[in-house]
Structure formats: structure tokens, C-alpha cells
Amino acid sequence: MTDNGKIKVCIGLSGGVDSSVAALLLKRQGYDVFALFMQNWHDASTTLHGDCEWEEDRFVAEMVARKIGIPFYFVDLSAEYRKRVVDYMFDEYEKGRTPNPDVLCNREIKFDAFLKCALELGVDYVATGHYCKKDEFVNEDGEKIYRILAGDDKNKDQSYFLCQLSQEQLSKALFPIGDIDKPEVRRLAKEAGLPSAEKKDSQGICFVGKVDLPVFLQQKLKAKEGNVVEIFATEQEREPFTQQALKAGECVADLEGNVILTPNELGERYIDYTPDELQKLAAPAAYTPADGKVIGKHTGAQFYTIGQRRGLNIGGHKESIFIISIDIENNIIYVGEGHSHPGLYRKGIKINNDEIHWIREDLELKVGERRRYMVRIRYRQPLQQATLYREEDGLYIVFDKPQRGISAGQFAAWYTHGEEEMIGSGVISR
Fold first, then answer.
1. Which of 81, 152, 281, 309 is the most exposed place for a label (fewest CB within 10 A)?
2. CATH fold of 226-427
3. 117 flagged as catalytic
4. Predicted confidence (pLDDT) per residue in 313-348, tens digit
5. Could you read off the pLDDT of 261-303 as tens digits, one per residue?
6. Which one of the listed residues 10, 52, 117, 206 is annotated catalytic?
7. CA distance 365 to 374
8. Has 163 been annotated as catalytic?
9. Which of 226, 218, 160 is closest to 424 using CA atoms?
10. Which of 52, 105, 117, 163 is catalytic?
11. How many angstroms separate the CA atoms of 305 and 240, rounded?
């Protein structure tokens, strides 16, 4: 039996209930635990006061550490966070892309800058309050392989946020609450009298807090008035994208919409698309002002994302209007009316070679190989059936049914069927 008392663990204590219970469980399991609170943001001008301000978070985290009976320390990583996460965010939005700062925060801060700080203090592991699981096995060559698995609480599974971690980072990671659900976490915190027991979950950017995103972006990106152009769609064009059709459309079709594989036939089979067909499937819609009608103005295309419906302040429609395309170069936003507008949906995406990341390097696809996986392109999105195609110019992902609101800059993560092990991820290039 392992003597956990000789294993030193640093828990990233944020002041939230999840990391608090993670610390509690580690303490109860006999580990030599200490808490380290990281400050990643100083500027309160863009933070909505009363919502997850770091001063309050630090106060609660220190109280939790005292209650559990573990040492508490503080580290300021704000310079690293601004450089490696916030600046990246600004750059991506300026290009008309949609970044996920939480994924970057885990890769660049929690499991890099923060991990290095902890290792300098002599720890064996760094623990977080993520709802996910980790295990390991030894392969035929005697190498230890680490796996990221979805958390048992499918409503809170946070494995997606860890989609850019490496084997080296995973070797030092612990996720103590991955096998319990949120209600149980709340119960344990309340039972132990932890100050964070009733604390609301953070809804903002990782370690920044709840922010007004447009105001946040305007710190660096200048407002510039441009046109909002509506693209109209006929009922016939909308038909394949109705909710009924999407719900029933669990089959795989070719480029003309002809059914190739039924649900019972899918398994590990795939359509052998040509490189040209893959490029066509992954190409975003390309609109021009002549394709539609100017219906309003906006303050800067870089402040909006594909699939967004709020913030346009344009009325006169029966259904909500959604952003379906962004032209950064010409400062034009293209919109379409209704959830079933075809401009909202795509079958495929592309990830450039330099943006492909394999957590399981032993399962990396070689050029010419195809493999079936479950894929998601945003947190909380249900896993979607898809086929991955590795080509000379990158990785293509073709979904069994069209996906809504795909935007360059998002992270796509792929999982195995059944066990839901996360295998790899990549930044959507288009």
C-alpha cells in the first residue's frame, strides 16, 4: 500500500468549492498537501464587481486552507497570464477568430507556469478541481502512458479544458473529484463546514472573473463602424438544417446529400473522401455584400463571433438573427435569420499540421489514415460522431451531421467511444 504521507501535493486553491473539496479529499487520503493560490489578473476595470473578484477568492481560499489544516501560499502569475493568455486572446479576436482562454490557461498557466512554481517547492504532483479522471498503463515497450478520461458527472465533465495537455504535464497531475458529481461535492463541502460550500461557480474568464467581453477587448482593439449584411435563405435551403432533420440525421451522407451509411452501419467505417472533397467540406461560407442586404451597423467585426445572436440590436425579424460569417479585412458581419439558417452549419473542419496535438502520441494518425472518434468543439457540447482524416496538409474532421456555429480559433477535441478517453485536440484553422 502506498504511503501517501510521503507524497507531496500542491493543490491549486481558487476559492471555489471544487478545488476546496479536492484539497479536502487529498488531506483525508493522507497526502502531504499545501495550497497555492495564483493571482492572474490585477486590472479590475473590466471586471464586474461582486463577481469572482480575486481579492474575495483569495480570502475564501485562505479560509478553506485553515479549515482543512493545510499550509497556504500565494503566487503572482499575472505577467505570464497577460503575455501567454490575454495577448493571445486579443490577437485571435483581431483576426476574426474565436479563442478559448480557459484551454490556454490550463496549458500555459496551471500546468506550466504554476506547475513549475510548485515543482520548485519540491512537490510530486499538482492537483486541481477539474471534473475529469486520469489513469495510466505501461505499454509493450515498458513506457508509462497517461490517459485523460471524462469525469463521472457528465453534466460537469471538464476534460475539454485539458485538451492541450502533454504526457509530461499529465504525469504530474491529479484530479481528486473526477469520480464524484457536483451535488456530492457540495455535500462534502457543507458537511466539512468549508467557507466555499455555497459559493457560486465562476462564470468568467479563467482567473480573471466575470467580465464585459466587449469592454475587455476594447482595451486593445479599436472600434470601427461597419455594415451588417443579411443573407437570406429559402425554405428549401433551410430544410436540411431544421431541428427535426438534425435529430433524425444520424446517418452519413455524401456531398450531394445521398445517404451512404445508416446508423447500424456506421461502426468504424468511413467515406473515402478525396482531398478536394475534404477541402470543400471544411471550407467556411464565403459571402459578399452582393449576396445580401445591408440591415444595420456594427462597432467592429473583431468584437463578434460566429453563432452570436446578442449585441447586434437589430429588430424587424420573426426569429432571432445570428452571425454566420465575419469578414475582418472588409469589416463586414454577415447574419442570417433563425436557428435553421444553412450559414450556421458546417459538416467539416480543418486543423493545420502545426496546430494538431495528440495527448496519446501512440495513437497519432499518419498521413492517409482515417479513424472514427467522438468530437466536441466547445465546452458542454454533447460529443458528436465524426471521422478524422489525416492528409498531407493537415487533419480534417467530418461530422456525421452538420455542426452549428463552427469558428476558426476554437479547439476541437476528440474522444474514444464508450470510455470517453480524450485522445487529442487541435485549433480549427477554418
1. 309
2. Elongation Factor Tu (Ef-tu); domain 3 (2.40.30)
3. no
4. 888 899 999 999 999 999 999 999 999 999 999 999
5. 544 454 555 688 999 999 999 999 889 999 999 999 999 999 8
6. 206
7. 15
8. no
9. 160
10. 105
11. 23
